[in-house]
Amino acid sequence: MATTTEFVEGEVEGTGGPAIDSKYRLIILAAKRSKQLQRGAQPRIEIDPQKHKPTRIALEEVMRGRVHFDIKENGKNPPE
After folding, report:
1. Who has the most CB within 10 Å: 24, 62, 70, 79?
2. CA-CA distance, 14 to 53, in Å (whole number)?
C-alpha cells in the first residue's frame, strides 16, 4: 500500500505514470496542484483562469492526466 504521494512540479504531462487508485489520492493531488496555481503557476489545460477557481482547474488537470506524480512505497523511491 502506498504511504506517500510525491508531486513532481516540473512535469507537464502525466504520461506513463501510475493510475489514480482512490478518490483520496485524487483530492490530495488536486489540492497540491491548486496551491501551485494560487502561487502563479500556469494552467496545463485550455481554460480561462478568470472564470474558474484554482481548485476546479487543478481537479480537471488531474482527471485529464496532466499532473505527474510518483507513489512511494514505505517512504522509498519507486523501482525504476
Report:
1. 62
2. 22
Domain ranges of the chain: 4-72
58 near 31, Cβ under 8 Å? yes
Q: How confident is the model at residue 73 (pLDDT cuts 50, 70, 90)?
A: confident
Q: Which residues pair with 71 in a beta bridge?
A: 5
Say if residues 68 and 13 touch (Cβ distance below 8 Å): yes
Which single residue is written with the C-alpha cell 501551485? Answer: 36
Beta-bridge partner residues of 5: 71
More confident residue, 56 or 73: 56
Tell me the pLDDT tens digit for each residue of 1-30: 343 344 444 433 444 567 888 999 999 999
For residue 36, the surrounding DSSP H or E stretch is: helix 23-38
Which DSSP state fits 69?
A: E
